[in-house]
Specification:
disordered N terminus; alpha+beta; disordered C terminus; 19 helices; about 15% strand; 13-stranded mixed β-sheet; about 625 residues
Amino acid sequence: MAFSGWSRVKHLGARRRSVNAQASDHPLSMAGKGVHYSYVFDLGPGLNIFRLADRLLKENMATIAARPSNDELKVSNGLADTERHLRHAEHTEEFMREFLSESPNVWRILRLDPRFVLRRMVPAYLRFLVRYFLGKATTETGGRDDALNAVADSIAETSNDMREGLMGYHVGGATRVRVEQKVHFPRYFKSDPYVRLAMNRIFYKDPEKAEDDAIEISLMAHRSGICILTFSMGTPETMTARQIRRCIASGDRQLEFIKISESIFRRYVKSQEKSIPESKMDRHFSERFEGQRWLTIPLDPGAEPDDGLSVETVFHVYFHALISASKREADDEWTCYTTLSLGAPQCCSPDEAKLVHRIEFAGLMLRLYRPRKLESATEELLLKNHLKIADKELWISVSNAMYVDWHGTAIDYIDDMVTLVPLESALLQARQLEQIDAITADAIVRDRRIFKAQNQIAVGLQEYRRNLLTGPDDAVIVNALLDKLGAHALYSRLLDRIKTLEGLINSGYSRMQSRRSLAVSLVGLAIVLVLLPPRIEEFHDKVANLGRRPASAISWIDDIFGGRSHAIFWICVIVFAISCFAIGATCRRWRRPSITRKKFGKSLPRQISIVLDDPPSGHDNWSSVPTNDQSC
């Protein structure tokens, strides 16, 4: 798949260094648990996140959406249709079970489906009576009952499949929201800072894995316009240093083929200002499952490694589809931060691995092609543990992080999410500072842009270094990543720029007040010179003596108001009202009312709630927390 246009990609820490090497005596081998690619980009200030969420759900580009301040889950049009078909199937199953029972209740059957009873059962029963009186009726119903039982079993199986699929979407879409609700203080969600959506997944084949797998994609649309698109993928069960390096860089994670949903691909094609004939769409989107048609894009055997399918390729499709759906003119600047989750070493013991493979771990944090000898201070900085627990470590660099469980190998998505939340919170804060930096740097043109920059500062700096996370290590993780990203230095520069901007705002406000004072003076002068009531009648007489046309105009005005005295009175009233309105309009700063509808998606008649139990003590025990699903 080729992408047209120029894309200015900003890679964090993409430069690779070379120094003297010193390798270990045996190759590194770690248990793989999962990898998460966090793509951060800006759709621009003033983004209506609720309208965007509603459009993504209506077009079936996303499946589940939720506000962290509310436990209700919103679903797409496709899932709403699935739930409606499920209710119909359950109703039919209940009817069939009652109809085929040994002692069916006629009134219950009639209540369950009166149309079927009146249209099908009553005519059939009348035909049976006619055949019975004519001596042609038969009582052999064994084969017919077996066929009906088979139909009932098929309906029950279909209902169960739809129920499990619907519940799976809810669990997958709500887990991330529930984790964020647990690890944040409730005060953060009072103003609905963002909307979390579960986007359509991508099915793929990895050359490193035997079976096909799916990429779970989650979108956080923040009110500042900053969005984070998270791609969560599986990894090989056992990973070498080469495989770990390929997983860290999303552009190096090659895929044999991908299956993409029709709704996402249509939006991507629209963003490229192209059109595909329906006949060609029908031919290529031949596979259908999960309520949508899917397109399979294979890897071109003759393509170069940089031109093949990769995780970055998939992101480009979703990125441009989101730009098209949001109807924004966003640039192509984005960053990718990788969080790799590893398990226990497979080549040696954990204590031995920490010593023997220390150089390799440090090189992987720098994305080196092969192990190189580094300065001891550099190794200490790269392999500094930001967790307080002993059996797990979190290493953070400017471009990626490694979360290592030295004694576990089981995949734990919730535990990964608890670690990922503070990292993405730091990425969000850093990107907000960059957004403010870009806006304030170009805010000296007009007063309107100055006030816009002031408003964006009020929105963007609300979350910077606030105590919003409840975990014992979260604040340390956030500050460490912000420091590596240079956010603290940027924040200091912004404070100086904000002082300058404040001076511009004060001078702009002074100019505005001067214009208002001048307008008030002119209006007052007009009232004194023109609308002085004792001189109005004399003014009328002088106008009437100017000629035939002015005299006829004065007579016409007198006739309208019912005489000269009435005309003078109402003219005074009208001009006085106009003067008051002009004074009020010039002294008030008019703003357009900001009305944001927070409705998006569809609600199911039977709400499905996903609840995460509280961990016994601290975030390190989230791995044993079950997920409870409740259907009402």
